[in-house]
């Protein structure tokens, strides 16, 4: 039994190939969606600053989420506009803006594995309606993402893009206008 406990994590790492958003086993992901998501119809989304251990990771992940929202038919508010309406303690104060929801992303884990060729990450993304209702929440446990490019060089952006896609692939498209 001890042998299995010691070998299994190594097999998981060896068995992973360039982990992308669709490669992550669904058992590692917890996904919650408000039953009336379409009724809330969040269109204009403010992407808040990302909580993560590394500054470059925070900026890259936020930018990736922001850009990916357009592919999901959301209207993301420009990041500099969101920043100008965010207090020093991180609270979004967008009363003068037209917005429906905020997207908050947090990485709880970000650590290098196997000589920096892999990153173990874990985190959460939450879409919250301006009323305070959580509309969608996606989290994943500590999972290894490959950061070594095909050419053999290490690029942390590979892992950050995979994490952004992990969240965006599971976010429902912006609900269509109700039929009249």
If you had to describe this structure to a student in words, what would you say it looks like?
- The protein has 180 residues and is α/β, with parallel strands linked by helices.
- The chain is 31% helix and 27% strand.
- It contains five helices and six strands; from the N terminus they run H-E-H-E-H-E-H-E-E-E-H.
- A six-stranded mixed β-sheet has the order 1-6-5-4-2-3, covered by helices on one side.
- It is globular.
Show the helix and strand layout.
Blueprint: H1 2-15, E1 29-33, H2 37-40, E2 44-47, H3 55-71, E3 75-76, H4 79-84, E4 101-113, E5 118-129, E6 134-146, H5 156-170
Helix pairs in contact: 3-5
Whole-number mean pLDDT = 84
Give helix % range: 25-40%
Q: Count of helices? A: 5
Range of strand content? 25-35%
Number of strands: 6
CA-based gyration radius: 18 Å
Tell me the span between the first and last alpha carbons: 62 Å
What summary fits the major beta sheet?
6 strands, mixed
- Give the topology string: H per helix, E per strand: HEHEHEHEEEH
Query: In terms of per-residue confidence, which ranges show pLDDT below 50 for 5 or more consecutive residues?
Result: 1-21
Indicate the overall shape: globular
Order of strands, widest sheet:
1-6-5-4-2-3
Structural class: alpha/beta
């Amino acid at each position: 039994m001890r042998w299995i406990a010691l070998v299994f994590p190594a097999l998981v790492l060896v068995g992973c190939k360039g982990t992308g958003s669709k490669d992550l086993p669904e058992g590692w992901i917890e996904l919650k969606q408000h039953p009336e998501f379409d009724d809330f119809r969040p269109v204009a989304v403010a992407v808040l600053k990302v909580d993560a251990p590394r500054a470059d990771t925070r900026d890259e992940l936020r930018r990736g989420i922001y850009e990916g929202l357009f592919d999901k038919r959301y209207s993301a508010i420009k990041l500099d506009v969101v920043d100008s309406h965010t207090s020093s303690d991180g609270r979004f104060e967008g009363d003068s803006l037209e917005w429906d929801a905020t997207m908050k992303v947090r990485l709880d884990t970000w650590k290098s594995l196997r000589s920096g060729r892999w990153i173990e990450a874990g985190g959460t993304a939450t879409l919250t309606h301006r009323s305070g209702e959580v509309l969608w929440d996606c989290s994943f446990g500590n999972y290894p993402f490959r950061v070594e490019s095909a050419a053999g060089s290490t690029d942390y952006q590979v892992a950050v893009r995979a994490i952004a896609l992990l969240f965006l692939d599971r976010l429902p498209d912006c609900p269509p206008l109700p039929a009249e």
